[in-house]
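ping. complex inputs:
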Amino acid sequence: MDFLIFQVPMLTLQAVLDGLLLGILFALIAYGMALQWGVMNIINIAQGDLVILGGYIAYFMYLYGIHPAWGVIVSPIIMYFVGVIIYKLVINKVVDRDLFISILATFGISILFMQLMNFAFGADVVLANSGYGTTMLFDNSVTLPNSKIFSAFISILFAIGLVIYMKKSKLGRAIRATAQNARAAKILGVDTEKVYAATFGINAALCGVAGALISITFTIHPYMGLPYTIRSFMIVIVAGLGNLPGVAMSGMSLGVFEEFADYILGTEFRIGSVFLLLVLILVYRRFKLSRKREYLK
Amino acid sequence: MKIKNIIITFVSAIAILFSTSVVSFAKVVGDKIILGAAISLTGKYSSNGVHTQNGYNMAVDRINEMGGVKVGGKTYKFDIIYYDDESNPKRAAQLAERLISQDGVEFMLGPYSSGLTKAIAPVTEKYGVPMVEANGASRSLFTKGYKYLFAVLAPANLYLDVAIETAVALNGGKGVRIAQAFEQDAFSQDVRLGILDAAERTGSKIIIDDKLPKELNDMAATLAKVKAVKPDVLVVSGHTKGALTAIRQIAEMKVDVPMLAMTHCDAAKLSKQHGKNSQYALCASQWHKTLTYKDDFFKDGMTYAADFEKLFGYDPPYQSAESSAALLVFKDAFERANTFDQKKVRDALAATNMQTFYGNIKFAEGGQNVDKPMVLFQVMCDDAGKCENKVVAPLKWASAELIHPIPKWSER
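pong. complex structure:
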């Protein structure tokens, strides 16, 4: 078959670059999810709604004449506190329960957030213009919006910052200890309650950064959160829990995979193909697991 | 425990009170004709829901002020019972049931969006309640053989075929190469069908035919393809999200196309959100204030727009104008039927042939308005960056000349 992408070599490059830039941004959201899932064993369905709320913060800054790029600093600060408040009000009551309860609780938060955002900001689709222009390569045949490059750059910066923070800081070490064994950490004097609150806060802050970036690269709308939740969920599943470099890799490769699926199978199969890949990976995992010899540790 | 009991007693007392005191409205109470409407006042359609409600309210006030509706030698005034359908089709259908069977409403106004109209239409049809709707354009609404559904707007498949015909005319009558990207929802897919028809009719060729996901926020891949194949016309329809995403990414990726046609520019506030980047985009619209249709109630589009702005503080989008027109249609039908018998009012509606400030209204067998063409406007900006929508087609109402082809990004 004569696929356009193979006839025009520059399209291949465009697809790879677009996919990478998109994937990096998604990886940032997935990063927060992986962290909180690993530490607290909570799958946060409201992840995407936190992203959108972060986006609205940047959007309102833009409305009041402040460049939306500052949103990547302001939004995480506000969102950190939003995260801590959500933890104190709801999450701390479900943190030790089984996964299903936490899914229900965060699903409720998600609906509440959607409606509140709709109520507060209206149902219009909005965006913030960064005015960053475009980078053109190879005589304008490959174009990269600078806003996307900026987003990817900031995402990488925050991801690296987080890894260093987790390794070097006291709280970071406490978070890792809690993730490994909450009970042992508690016995050794780690205030796990505080660790959980901070983890949820950090996750919300990462969502805030991603939201601000999304408001300048894509569009935001109160009901647009769920796709971000699903995407980050998939990235985490593909990467495996507690595998932060894996999250970055899986984010980027899913981004590129999606772009290629779009060119080869058609836009309508873009999302579907990612799901298909997810199923294949899960089946493969299961297959590998079943071949492992089981023994009591 | 005691407090809990008191609360339970209190709540049940209120519930009983409410359940026994539901007043059953008749269709006509005293000198009032009561219409029912489920409108999206919350949820994802709430902005357009409010535009719809404002349009209805303005027309009700205007008709009432100007003498109301004369039926059987008596003068009646319009009144509307609203319920919030929360932008949810199931809820809309429930509310339609409630309006008809509990509130006793015998004439309905439509909700916002094709999806919700589709949910309500079977209910109104079942009870034989005439419904004039102003915001459901999906073609599938008009192919189901509904007898009590009347839409003042042109069906979705006619939204953009004017654009294709204009492009073909500008190409010396020869077919053009079309790239299209449509969201996968009932409305946008209907617009797509219209383009397919137009392409066949004009001998045009469709070279890209992308279906965008509902959670669309990125169409970079589609646009990269467009850059590679260089079509004559790019058509995009995906509600406000689609319009905003397309303009943002076309500008960012410097995609040069001679003609860009889309829907929902009004609702997306394209020129406000994107400024000069939205320049030259062609947009399909049901109505524009500069059209010269006239009626006795709102005079013409410009007067309607000025009055609307005075009342609500913003320029009326076409969703408001068509909603106001729905009331004019009802008034006309009641007066011609000269009775409140639902069947006779239905027949009178079917025989409607009138002009309103919004356009001519004449219903086809399926209930769609066949006497009002769509208009195309083009976003035009001055040097200071102030942008305006100017009607460019059909030529009869054009207030500006179409700028074609769109200048290349490198020359802007």
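The mean pLDDT of chain A is 88.
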